[in-house]
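Give me the fold.
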Amino acid sequence: MAALIKGTVAQLTTESINLEWSAPQFWKGNEIKHSSIYSIDVSLDSTRYHFSIPYQGCEPYLVNGQSYFVEKGDYFMFNPQQSVRAEGQFAEAVKGYCILLTEATVQSVAQSLQESLATALEDPFHLSWQQQAFMVKTYSFKENAFGQYLKQIQQMLLSDTEQLIDWDTFYYELAQAFLQTHRQIAREIAAIPAIQAATREEAYRRITLAHAYIQDNYTQSFSLDQLSKVALLSKFHLIRLYRAVYQQTPYQTVLQLRMARAKQLLLTNYSATEVAYMLSFSDRRAFSKAFKKWVGMTPSVFAAKR
């Protein structure tokens, strides 16, 4: 199938040259590309690890026949040697950055962490290096430490400020953040009590939907019933699987996020009553009780630290 694209891709880590993807392009080494696309129907380079971080519109991908969509606030990755296409037509340009890492870079970083490559790329599903060593899905920036790392990179790239970048260090640190986070994700998936790898992966996708919902809505009141609808899981399975992955219940995550936010608010001159309202506690008394149990002191004592 012919590769067709309407738009441009700029390679950022060498000379600023606009590249028309009229034919497949394969670049050596690590690099960053900036894309502004109106339509695309092309097989993507799958010789390296691929991380997409869009900031305008929605990027569509087809990985081994399965569809994925990535929007602002998300990142998406696929592994070397997978079959990947990008297909879509857009009313407005879809814009974003694509970071590509070579297997050699990942291997070098793994060795620098004093681990063998096999250990660094440990796969609980016993698949080979080139068969989904890391789970392919759309990840929220909020979902994990690597997402936060990519968010910072995106902000840096979008900045108008001129910056001097040590590219070797940049890519090695990126690979380290990737390895550490996605090995943790592999351990979380392995903790899900299911025999089939596909079942574990699907359960993990659903649990991360619930986790993302909590992160976006923890200041609001919502029920376990609502959360179970988001994850498409029964309340029993939601609690069971959530605890297996995150070592706490959904409600404990809500409290953790609320208490962290409460500390920030109390130190910026908000009263305990105001904070209770902002974080959807029933009243000041309920907030103060929860805060003391979680933090070890009352809101007034904590606020006195400012």
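The radius of gyration is 22 Å.
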